[in-house]
Write a structure and sequence with these properties.
The chain has about 250 residues and is an alpha/beta fold. It has one domain: Rossmann fold (3-Layer(aba) Sandwich), CATH 3.40.50.300. The chain is built from 9 helices and 10 strands. The strands form 2 sheets. It has a 6-stranded mixed sheet with strand order 6-7-8-3-9-10, with helices on both faces. Strands 2-1-4-5 form a 4-stranded antiparallel sheet. The chain starts with a strand and ends in an 18-residue tail after the last helix. The model has no long low-confidence stretch (mean pLDDT about 95). It binds adenosine-5'-triphosphate. The site of adenosine-5'-triphosphate (ATP) has 11 residues, from strand 2 and helix 1. One of its GO terms (molecular function) is ATP binding. It comes from Microbacterium radiodurans.
């Protein structure tokens, strides 16, 4: 079966900083796939290249068999992408944002309306549908970002830190939405530092460090009987405060 995402030898530098360094990754179609890695590991850079927003310096990326570069248009049709802090049009209302995205995707107006109604209801944004997005909290912005990414019912959804800023109720709703989408045949790929969510939802996980893949496999295999968080620290290396660090914190506060 054609992988949902196939990346080979992907490289990206910003000046002298090599952000992604020869990354190979295959995400099986129909999987729930987590990408984890320390801060600055290159996750966002890699995801933006998959989404067709950043051109790799070398290597190739295909989404459901369609090459993303040099012409990302077809791959973008198959993909829904939610950025860490979704760049939406702040002056549009949530409803207008959905109408505009649906038009860009070439969906019929009636379909945009009915799917938009569904998404706004499920994501608990119905009452805020007429408010400008600029007035939204980060959690609300993430939810409307997800609605925009799902409106065209893409084959692959890729989400950068989707659960940050969501309260527990909305985390549960988002998890249920993603599981439903996955049961219908979609592939979900998301990056997260919240490893218990990765452990709960994903069948497979990739760990990226220093711009390269350092581990990939079934979650249970990688965790090896410990928590995924412990396995992650074993793989990427932990860091502890030395005895003398911040010693002033041990004295009584003024
Ligand atoms: N536009 C840019 N210009 C310069 N350097 C960049 C740019 N984007 C990313 N980098 C650098 O590339 C490296 C990887 O950054 P990236 O944001 O991809 O990491 P990340 O794994 O998503 O990190 P985090 O978990 O902290 O969000 C970092 O050293 C970062 O400073």
């Amino acid at each position: 079966m054609t992988p949902a995402i196939a990346a080979t030898g992907v490289v990206k530098s910003f000046g002298s900083v090599r952000s992604v360094s020869g990354l190979d990754l295959a995400v099986p179609a129909g999987s729930f796939f987590g990408i984890a890695g320390p801060n600055g590991a290159g996750k966002t850079t890699f995801i933006r290249m998959i989404a067709g927003l950043l051109r790799p310096d070398a290597g190739s990326i295909a989404v459901a068999g369609e090459q993303v570069w040099p012409n990302p248009r077809r791959a973008k049709e198959l993909l829904g992408y939610v950025a860490d802090n979704p760049p939406l049009f702040g002056r549009l209302s949530a409803r207008e944002m959905l109408d505009y995205s649906g038009m860009l995707r070439g969906l019929p107006a009636a379909e945009i309306r009915s799917r938009g109604d569904d998404l706004l209801r499920v994501l608990d944004l119905e009452e805020d549908a007429a408010r400008p997005i600029a007035d939204f909290s980060l959690g609300m912005t993430k939810r409307i970002g997800l609605a925009v990414a799902m409106l065209h019912n893409p084959r692959v959804l890729i989400l950068d830190e989707p659960f940050g800023a969501l309260d527990p109720v909305n985390t549960q709703v988002m998890e249920q939405m993603l599981q439903k989408y996955r049961r219908a045949g979609g592939t979900v790929v998301f990056s997260s530092h919240v490893l218990d969510v990765v452990e709960r939802l994903c069948d497979r996980v990739a760990i990226i460090a220093g711009g390269a893949l350092v581990a990939e496999g079934a979650v249970a295999e990688l965790a090896h009987g410990e928590s995924l968080q412990d396995a992650f620290i074993d793989i990427v290396g932990g860091r502890e405060l030395a005895e003398g660090d911040l010693s002033w914190l041990s004295s009584s506060p003024a």
